[in-house]
Amino acid sequence: MRAPWAHSLLALSVATSALAATNTSSSSNSSTITAYLADGYLDMGIASDAYEKAKAFVAPLNNTEKIAIVMASSFTSDNASWSAYANTDGVDGLNFYYFVSAFPMTNALTQTWNRDLIAAQFNAVGAEYFGTGNNVVDGALLGPLGRVPEGGRQNEAFTPDPFLAGIAVAEGVTGQNSAGVIAGVRHFLLYEQETNRTAGGGDSSVYSSNADDRTLHEVYMWPWGDAIKSGAMAVMCAMPRVNGTHSCSNNELLSGKLKMELGFPGFVYPDESAQFTSYSAATAGLDYSPYSNGLWTQASLSAGIANGSLPQARLDDMAIRAVLPHYFVGLDTADLPAKTSYTAFRDVRGNHSTLIRQIGGESMALLKNNNSNGGGLPLNKPHTISLFGAHAGPAVSGPNYAWSVGGTGADVFQGHLALGGGSGETSLPYLVTPFNSLTQRAIEDNSMIWWIMNNTFSSSSSGNSFGLASGTGVAPSFTEYASNSDVCLVFINSWSGEGSDRSELYNTEQDDLVSTVAGSCNNTVVVVNVSGPRLLEAWIENDNVTAVIYGGLLGQESGNAIADVLYGDVNPSGKLIHTIAKNTSDYPASVCETAECDFSEGVYIDYRWFDKQAIEPRFPFGHGLSYTTFTYGTVTATITNSTALGSKYATGQLGLGGLADLFDEVITVNTTVQNSGALDGAEVAQLYVSFPDEAAQPVRVLRGFEKVNITTGATSSVSFSVRRRDVSYWDVAAQNWAVASGTYTFGVGSSSRDIRGNATLTI
Ligand SMILES: *[C@@H]1O[C@H](CO)[C@@H](O)[C@H](O)[C@H]1NC(C)=O
Ligand SMILES: *[C@@H]1O[C@H](CO)[C@@H](O)[C@H](O)[C@H]1NC(C)=O
Ligand SMILES: *[C@@H]1O[C@H](CO)[C@@H](O)[C@H](O)[C@H]1NC(C)=O
Ligand SMILES: *[C@@H]1O[C@H](CO)[C@@H](O)[C@H](O)[C@H]1NC(C)=O
Ligand SMILES: *[C@@H]1O[C@H](CO)[C@@H](O)[C@H](O)[C@H]1NC(C)=O
Ligand SMILES: *[C@@H]1O[C@H](CO)[C@@H](O)[C@H](O)[C@H]1NC(C)=O
Ligand SMILES: *[C@@H]1O[C@H](CO)[C@@H](O)[C@H](O)[C@H]1NC(C)=O
Ligand SMILES: *[C@@H]1O[C@H](CO)[C@@H](O)[C@H](O)[C@H]1NC(C)=O
Ligand SMILES: *[C@@H]1O[C@H](CO)[C@@H](O)[C@H](O)[C@H]1NC(C)=O
Ligand SMILES: *[C@@H]1O[C@H](CO)[C@@H](O)[C@H](O)[C@H]1NC(C)=O
Ligand SMILES: *[C@@H]1O[C@H](CO)[C@@H](O)[C@H](O)[C@H]1NC(C)=O
Ligand SMILES: CC(=O)N[C@H]1CO[C@H](CO)[C@@H](O)[C@@H]1O
Fold first, then answer.
1. Which residues, judged by CB distance below 6 Å to any ligand atom, belong to the binding site of ligand 12?
2. Is the backbone peptide bond immediately before 189 cis, with ω within 30 degrees of 0?
3. Cβ(252) – ligand 1 distance below 6 Å
4. Closest ligand to 189 CA?
5. Each residue of 378-434: pLDDT tens digit?
6. Domains in the chain, start-ordered, CATH in brackets?
7. Does 271 participate in catalysis according to the annotation?
8. Residue 701 pairs with which residues in a beta bridge?
9. Which ligand is nearest to the CA of 662?
10. How deeply is 117 buried, as exposed, middle or buried, from its count of CB atoms within 10 A (0-12, 13-18, 19+)?
């Protein structure tokens, strides 16, 4: 069912790592990096039992059976029986199925900065996979990370900040695996845009991402370490090339970086149009392929074994890696239901709608709020309310829409937007729009509610001649409704999806709508749901715009979640996961239109770039207000493991996620946060680290966050645990993570540009 452009992701390129270079295959190219689990190079840790079971399962099999496994076939023989995995798309809910839930998209989920909710959503999605008989989730996207603000899949991804993405994906992987399904993580690596990811089916013009070694490690590989450490057992390689070589045939990337450096013990599988070679994909490190497009068959792989193109040890390793995740998540003992058809009534939703609404509400960031003169938020039983914009209510048909935005360059959705396109488009069973939920509120509060659910409605065509005959004394026009309302709610969105990047970061039609309404309404509240960063410059400084709430795409309960925040049932606690710039040109990168895409901005994406260049953002990364206020206490920083910090370079054994000591907790940073306002609320306290010069790091990087719920007047203590890797930089010459000597500053605050207290430490 999936379109050929369905997923893609990442390919790293290659600086030969010291670790990887030592193990080369003797049986094929001497330059080929091998990463056979049987060589014992990896401490299997939490995967040890699964590895032993996988080895025992594969040991008696003959090559026919091993090849069947790796080419995603099922078999039953004297020795064993094996069922191919059932994988399907949908990081935030199953694609295509009826009677499944449409969860908030990952960009919204991440805006909660709430570890428990991230785990809970991924677990609930996993439960719906299990219930429909699917056992591999083509799931979490660490690629795209977010280099390109126009990137079409930013709504499926976490955030351009590698630290936050890493913490979030770890929660997600754990949550999903514990539902008894295999959390697939996509796409390895440097897949940062849709444009030219395919080239009319041919491979020659698929773009190549070229990043330097330091950028590769400090930004793009970083969150994969967390994913693998937490038990990611399936990794999808991507459509683009890296350093000129297709990701799924890229030995340096798959065997060098993913398996030898990040200690990945499971299987690599290709995106649907991402496998271009047969033996060299296998020797590069591709393990399992439901999408080999005929490149892997019993005949071709047997011939490869026979003539030496495919080493026997490699086939054995592929089979073991393919089987290991089955044991890791307990599919050997689970009672996985038979896979259901897309349309059969097997309702797997449980009570997930409650979680969906909670996440939606907790994810919205309050960017601006001027509640003097009775304006702004939260709303308090307004007498007259008007709703403006196509995003306020349902599209003319729905709730689901064309699956692909590929090639359309769609930037605005003419209806309430709750999902992106492509593999991010879960099948909505229903959609609560703001129109639904706000009408209900108006009924409860005895308010009066008007609407114009069109971005360009022309008052002249509406027939002013009806005038008073409309029955309310107010003709349906932007200005008439706006000037007669206690509060004017304007709804705007930005749409994108797999297969197409956005063509703009703001939309004139929508911005004109906001300005028109604000021109006649001194209490204009704007609700923004985005697929990626959206500029707000056209109207953000207008004093009549009293409040702005901003979030990702919220799934099936979208309208309820928005109303919960507008009316103060939920006190906003979302924080931006990307920087909102004043100008498009303030961002360091945009869509690459050529075959070679050089990541020349290096590690400086999102706020790292704004800080380096001293560019004032409109709203910084991490920003988000509350209906209450928070006061921070003194910050302290203490070394908790000086043994670990005694050596400059990481020295531990290679385990899942990287060298084991990278994950040692070495420093604790403590502070307190007081709720100094009149309402209960939650604050996301953020830890930013500034390094000594030797480390050559950005001005500050996020290295911790804690979301705390604090009742009015109360004080919470907040403690950040800093790992060795969090104070390390990638030493290109040494090909290892190093801790620089010198003074580190630990700044704690409410956003990346609102540091409330610092502590320093010399290491
Ligand atoms: C790509 O090439 C650059 C420059 O040679 C190198 O630093 C980088 O590590 C390579 N990337 C990968 C994934 O091999
Ligand atoms: C592998 O084993 C199966 C059944 O156990 C058998 O049918 C098949 O012929 C064997 N293949 C080879 C190549 O020996
Ligand atoms: C061996 O290396 C050559 C050149 O780098 C490459 O074309 C070929 O595909 C490699 N063979 C294998 C089995 O990896
Ligand atoms: C809007 O204008 C009205 C009429 O002048 C005034 O009563 C009200 O306080 C104003 N509201 C805001 C939020 O400024
Ligand atoms: C909005 O209304 C105008 C007329 O005022 C109409 O031309 C346009 O098609 C409408 N837009 C949508 C998306 O329905
Ligand atoms: C603000 O709204 C008032 C009507 O309440 C209007 O007279 C004024 O021009 C508006 N100001 C701006 C800057 O749009
Ligand atoms: C990349 O995409 C752009 C815009 O679609 C196109 O003009 C260009 O030819 C493509 N480049 C390659 C190498 O395919
Ligand atoms: C401190 O670090 C050392 C060296 O990595 C490690 O062996 C030890 O387990 C750590 N201690 C604690 C309490 O984490
Ligand atoms: C705060 O507490 C409320 C009420 O118990 C709960 O609904 C909400 O999820 C909590 N938020 C956080 C961030 O823990
Ligand atoms: C930091 O806070 C944690 C949790 O409250 C506490 O256990 C720890 O002792 C504190 N550390 C220091 C150095 O104050
Ligand atoms: C914290 O340190 C930074 C520089 O590292 C400085 O700009 C900022 O003003 C300090 N903030 C506080 C609250 O001390
Ligand atoms: C660095 C590394 O992982 N080296 C391994 C290479 O493979 C041999 C066995 O074939 C292991 O003993 C080494 O540890």
1. 19, 22-23, 39-41
2. yes
3. yes
4. 1
5. 999 999 999 999 999 999 999 987 766 665 666 899 999 999 988 889 999 999 999
6. 47-193+203-328 (3.20.20.300), 352-578 (3.40.50.1700), 628-762 (2.60.40.10)
7. yes
8. 689
9. 8
10. buried
